[in-house]
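Record 1 of the preview.
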Amino acid sequence: MAAIDLSIALKKALDPVFAARLIEIVQPQITAVREDALVLADGRNIPIVNGVPRFVASDHYAASFSFQWTLYRTTQHDEGHQTDFSQKDFELKFGLTQADVAGRLFLDAGCGTGRLSEILAGWGAYVVSVDLSASVDVAHAHLAGADRVAVFQADIGALPFRPESFDFVISSGVLHHTPDTRAYAAKLVPLVKPGGEFAIWVYSPLHAKRKEWIPLTSRLPHPAFQAWCSWIVDIARQNRQNPFLRAVREQFPFTVYHETAARSALTLFDGYTPTYHGVHSEEEVIGWFRDFGLIDIGTNVIPTSVRGRKPAAA
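->
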């Protein structure tokens, strides 16, 4: 078989070790690469658009994320904002250090704009970044210079990777936006190598109040609701002690304390527009991890951020 050059498909230079590992883990096996498609062993041609292999035909239930991450493409990235917000967020949710991740193969399940993949790559990890939404185009652009990162558009409930492929599988703020948080988490665990780790953050009961609004707000036109989010955030940031606005925020919770108005408006839009909005206690998530057969289960600083290890092979 002729050598397979994935850099042709992904339209970027790839670390040779990483490229070889990618070819090993994709399932069904990649048999050939064209500029516009991956050819798989089962005969399928997986289209490639803008350097991203597309294992799904659309963003399905993730349209709100396609909208928001195209609009707020740089808002959460530390680079260019003189901030370490995303790095601190990663550390508080996953408890990982640079020493933990360097040289390891990660799956970033629900990568959004690629902000966590960017941190991992900067710390020397190899990263496969996947998302159902059109945010993959933003992520691919952000990570164009990262030769240890590859971005795929795919459903995290049916990923095209061999079992036991990854040293770490992480998912931050994503699984609660799937049709069934526990079931989709369970689908990721088989991708972890024996001795590898699985770590997730999902919404805690602190986010329960806004779930009441989802049947309404998730149906609003995205541009109109986003414009309202920006408007109300600006007003609330300028009048933080206004009793009427404080009462509004008690019934319709949103924060105004981010360092920029754009981050607050993004958080508001993000919290009220997804089709699904699961809320889970830490005890519940720890119970899932036990049911999944994971060991060394622990929690991190931010509520409902849970991490566990798959037992090593006998």
